[in-house]
């Protein structure tokens, strides 16, 4: 079974425990009293950021810092990683708890994108940075080219920042208001604040999604077509 998974993802592990952990969602870990992929996802987020930043810096020398930041944000966002993960059928490989499985967790972009980052971290720990770089760029190169051509996923936080910068309003921040639900099925409520004043709220299964939802809500309240 492990050999089939490795063939599907395109990497053979020396330490297969890393692979097993990377595919273990917290809902499954809680049921089986084992380690989830959350720590690996934390590491993978940073590994992905440096790989994408390095690639954009080296290959898009004519692009300024502001646009490079936008490109990177688009490439590492939840929607983008969920699409990339479809190439290796990652959603079918994730180990989910019974409740999460029954409520459609396998199709949830937040779960799939987190697992993708966890898998990248596992490959980084198992094979080193260059191996991780080769693996993830091989999967994401088409997305990178699309973004460089101006094709973007909706990044409402960036869109909000740009909309406010065109006016006289200043700093945009996000604040977590509440966390509800079981450990493996939480709902986060987040406020978006402009110059310290709460303007809109959003919800999501993690803080990233809730922040995007809050930004989206405020953009609509501002009359933006998003």
Structure description:
This protein is mostly helical and 226 residues long. The protein folds into two domains: 2-148, Ribonuclease III domain (Ribonuclease iii, N-terminal Endonuclease Domain, Chain A); 156-221, Double Stranded RNA Binding Domain (2-Layer Sandwich). Helices cover 58% and strands 11% of the residues. The protein has a three-stranded antiparallel β-sheet. It is globular. The N and C termini lie far apart (44 Å).
Order of helices and strands: HHHHHHHHHHEEEH
Specify Rg, calculated over alpha carbons. 18 Å
Question: Which topology of the largest domain does CATH recognise?
Answer: Ribonuclease iii, N-terminal Endonuclease Domain, Chain A
| Mean of pLDDT | 90
Q: Can you name the CATH architecture of the largest domain?
A: Orthogonal Bundle
Number of helices: 11
Instruction: Estimate the helix proportion, in percent.
Output: 55-70%
Q: How widely separated are the two ends?
A: 44 Å
| Poorly predicted runs | none
Would you tell me the structural class of the helices and strands?
Answer: mainly alpha
> What is the CATH top level name of the largest domain?
Mainly Alpha
Q: Give the number of DSSP strands.
A: 3
Fraction of residues in β-strands: 5-15%
CATH homologous superfamily placement of the largest domain: Ribonuclease III domain
Order of strands across the main sheet: 1-2-3
* Shape by Cα distribution: globular
Largest sheet: 3 strands, antiparallel
Q: How many structural domains can be distinguished in the coordinates?
A: 2
